[in-house]
User: Fold this.
Amino acid sequence: MKKVGVMAAVGMIVSFLISSNIALAGQIKNRQIRQQKRICQGISNGELTGRKVGILEREQCRIQKSKRRAWSDGRLTPMEGARLHSQQDRASGHIYRLKHNNITR
Assistant:
């Protein structure tokens, strides 16, 4: 009877980790999409110059590369997820700063 209880608990923990891993991956992907839209919007309304766009695009590429490296083993650890969120936080601040510094095309 104990084995069944232990196996059920282990199964629940594994399913929780898998589902939270998938949810975290979705959050990261959606956030990257939103940041890309913010960059495109800055281009279309003239808030971002070509040089600024290059800086932001390189940063987005670095985040994408980190994301691929984190997923290379088939899973995303909490530490890797935290690192990606931190990179995205910084990128978001850079997007805001470059869009609102009164230098336009």
About this structure: The chain has one domain: 2-99. The mean pLDDT is 82.
